[in-house]
Design brief:
heterodimer, A: mainly beta, 6-stranded mixed sheet, 4-stranded antiparallel sheet, 0% helix, 53% strand, globular, B: mainly beta, 7-stranded mixed sheet, 11 strands
Chain lengths: 118, 113
């Protein structure tokens, strides 16, 4: 069975600090996909990034960066120089690609509430 | 494309009434997810369809909940009879294929009094 764990329930930082959100996953499949979503106070769920299990190259996009490590089953997300507008709930998610019973089921972690104070 | 469209955005109903939530998928997408979000339980997957076929409904709370896809672009989630503990935000999401991201609707905030 697939499982996603976000151990940090809430994180509070001051503007301009760097912050890393942790995500650990469990899967028996060799082919899978990992995602990060953002849910701002307005409530919608916004897709941020996707990574497949064969691509461990880390990515930087502006102030956002992602660190994928298969050896530790982790897919962490870092915001550099945080801003008040980054305040939101961030969700990590996993989808298996293989032919197992999950057949593409998309499972989310419990989410991390990030508050950035001015 | 207009994105995933859910209706209604807000629903207030009395306990015991039937509630129907609606979702229009993004054109061409073949996977559909219904999620429920509460403070206590976070984002729970209720049911997952692929090519109009229910693949996993293990998250459907009980027989009071049912979901259908009468065609490839539309889905309903019905609760009958509704109970106060069903109060939550219900999201649907659609996806082009198993290996890509899902796009979410704006959600329906359901309050059962």
């Amino acid at each position: 069975a697939q499982k996603v764990t976000q151990a940090q329930t809430e994180i509070s930082v001051v503007e301009k600090e760097d912050v890393t959100l942790d995500c650990v996953y469990e899967t028996r499949d060799t082919t899978y996909y990992l995602f990060w979503y953002k849910q701002p106070p307005s409530g919608e769920l916004v897709f941020l990034i996707r990574r497949n299990s064969f691509d461990e190259q880390n990515e930087i996009s502006g102030r956002y960066s992602w660190n994928f490590q298969k050896s530790t089953s982790s897919f962490n997300f870092t915001i550099t120089a945080s801003q008040v507008v980054d305040s939101a709930v961030y969700f990590c998610a996993l989808s298996e690609r293989g032919g197992g019973t999950s057949y593409g089921k998309l499972t989310f972690g419990q989410g991390t509430i990030l508050t950035v104070h001015p | 494309d207009a994105g995933v469209i859910q209706s209604p955005r807000h629903e207030v109903t009395e306990m015991g009434q039937e509630v129907t939530l609606r979702c229009k998928l993004i054109s061409g997408h073949n996977s559909l997810f219904w999620y429920r979000q509460t403070m206590m339980r976070g984002l729970e997957l209720l049911i997952y369809f692929n090519n109009n076929v229910p693949i996993d409904d293990s998250g459907m709370p009980e027989d009071r909940f049912s979901a259908k896809m009468p065609n490839a672009s539309f889905s309903t989630l019905k609760i009958q009879p509704s109970e106060p503990r069903d109060s939550a935000v219900y999201f649907c999401a659609s996806r082009l294929d198993r290996g890509v991201e899902a796009f979410f609707g704006q959600g329906t905030r359901l309050t059962v009094v």
